[in-house]
TrEMBL record:
GO terms for molecular function: hydrolase activity. It comes from Aedoeadaptatus coxii. It comes from the Bacteria. InterPro entries: P2CMN_synthase_LarB, PurE_dom. GO terms for biological process: 'de novo' IMP biosynthetic process. Residues 89-221 form the PurE domain. This is PurE domain-containing protein. It holds the Pfam family AIRC.
Amino acid sequence: MEGEKPKKFITADFERKKRRLFGETIFGESKTADHLKAAIEKMLEHDGEVLVTRLSEERFNGLGDIKNLLDYDPLSKTAMAKKEKTAIGKVAVVTAGTSDVPVAEECVRTLNYFGIGTETVYDVGVAGIHRLFHKLDLLHQADSIVVCAGMDGALPSVVAGLVSSPVIAVPTSVGYGAAFGGVAPLLSMLNSCAEGVAVVNIDNGYGAAYMAGQMVMKIYEKTK
């Protein structure tokens, strides 16, 4: 019965997939080790799959035997056990710089878990904008585009001005002092001159993936 105690703190939302297209995900950063393990066990028992975000390598290694059931990626700080899915659609995930890649990889891994196809276009920020132009054909083919950028946060506006696909902007906490931990790019993105830009919270690659995934699912639902 000792293992049952942490589970009393967890009320899993097993109906979320019916309402929202994708099931519940576990936010790993601020849970106790016991609560985290109990949540993972509960999801695996019911669904046979689970996604955990914001999971440091140290916390992953502290999960005990259950970690052997999970595929862990230290760059994105995500862990998952997933059923085989045929990927549908295509979301392009773009970064301004290499420093933005951990946030982008959280997005990519989440989309892969959801069964959504991805293409990555990394390190094409405005300091060398010609790099982006070489990837425009790929971006034009995407159902939606996620753009992660820190510092001045200008890249999502540039991308949105060049393509017809909806753009989801992710401000990252990358940058020097006046970037204010991602607040400066957040404000730039909210003030985008280009239309069709949605903005999620700072470093929220998961939230961008969820929105992009819903867009793709709705597109392909209508083609059935």
